[in-house]
Every structure is written in C-alpha cells, then in structure tokens.
Amino acid sequence: MPRRYWLMKSEPDVYSIQDLEREGETGWEGVRNYQARNLMRDDMRVGDGVLFYHSNAKPPGVAGLARVCREAHPDPTAFDPDSDYHDPKSTRDAPRWVMVAVQHVETFPEVVSLDRLRETPGLEDMMVIKRGMRLSVQPVSKREFDTVAKLGRRKSSK
DNA sequence: GCCAACGTTGGC
DNA sequence: GCCAACGTTGGC
C-alpha cells in the first residue's frame, strides 16, 4: 500500500506517460530545484503513488498513474558535462541532486485536464491548480489522489 | 543579507 | 510566442 502520494510533472515532448508505459520504469533525473529535491530525498518511499502530470501540453493535466520503485540516490546527469542537466557544483563526493525511479501503473484513457481539476469539488487545495505554482514534485493527499484516479478511469462526460 | 538582474517554468 | 510568477545568482 502506498504511504504517500505525489504529483510529478513531465513535459510529454520530453517524456510522456506513453513513454513510461513502453519502458515500464524510468529514472526521474534532472530535477534542479531544492524544494523538489528535498521532497524526493526526505519523503518519497518505494510504493508511494504518483499522479503523472503532463505540463506544457494541450491540455495540461494528469495523464496516468505511477509508483515510486526506487528511493533517492545521486543523479549522475549532474556530473556529466555533456548533459543538459550538468551542474558543476555537484560532485561525486558531494552530490547536490538526487533522483528517484518510478514505474508505470496505468495510462488514463483521457488526460484529466487542469481545467477539470479546477472544477472538481474536493481538489481546491491541490498545489497544481494554484497560480504561479512551478514546483515539479508536489505532495497530494490520499483523497486527492483517489479522486483524480477515479476521474481518469472514467470516460469524460463533458 | 539585501535586492536587482537574470533565467526558467508553464499556462494561455 | 507572450509574459507573469518564481527561484537563483552575484554585486555590494
């Protein structure tokens, strides 16, 4: 049973829920924000539930479900000068950035759009619907997770 | 330790 | 493509 629940953002042009479905699991490298890093490092545990969110998409929204399958460990892309995610301040002796890994659980038949999240009772407190919220790893409550999962499994009626 | 400048995010 | 909001950097 998942103990905690999260929303994780990915741009589908870079990595989509369909990519995750095909690959089964993926390393979540490239997070370069301290708040997001701290959540991954301190609070994410194997088995936690993940809402896989497509950002910079049409429409933006939750595209499916995933599960944390590996806890935080140093993100090697930070050490790689050729990587887009290279950070010269992160060293192997003192890694600055961590990553987790997630595995595919399900792809929704239809994205639960940001608009839909906004208009769904009970989701008013989700961080993702707040204006200007850029955090790419966000905690969500079990109730929010379950509500979004239910919306995703159901054919949209709008 | 302030804060202006800058770069990034991400919805629209 | 625009731009508001936000986080980081670096001069002082």
Task: Provide a brief overview of the structure.
With 158 residues, the protein is α+β, with helices and mostly antiparallel strands. The protein contains 4 helices and 6 strands.
Report Rg.
16 Å
Distance between the termini: 32 Å
Unreliable spans? none
Mean pLDDT: 93
- Helical content band: 10-25%
- The shape, in one word, is globular
Question: H/E series, N to C?
Answer: EHEHEEEHEH
Strand order across the largest sheet: 2-5-4-3-1-6
- Number of E-state strands: 6
Number of helices: 4
Largest sheet: 6 strands, mixed
Could you please describe the fold and organization of this structure?
The protein contains four helices and six strands, in the order E-H-E-H-E-E-E-H-E-H. The chain has 158 residues and is an alpha+beta fold. It has a six-stranded mixed beta sheet with strand order 2-5-4-3-1-6, with helices on both faces. It binds a DNA duplex (12 and 12 nucleotides) through residues 9, 11, 33-35, 55-57, 59-60, 114, 131-134, 136.
Name the descriptors.
DNA-binding, globular, six-stranded mixed sheet, 158 residues, alpha+beta
Fold topology:
Elements: E1 5-10, H1 17-23, E2 25-27, H2 34-43, E3 49-54, E4 61-74, E5 98-113, H3 114-119, E6 137-140, H4 142-153
Parallel strand pairs: 1-3
Antiparallel strand pairs: 1-6, 2-5, 3-4, 4-5
The protein binds a DNA duplex (12 and 12 nucleotides) through residues 9, 11, 33-35, 55-57, 59-60, 114, 131-134, 136.
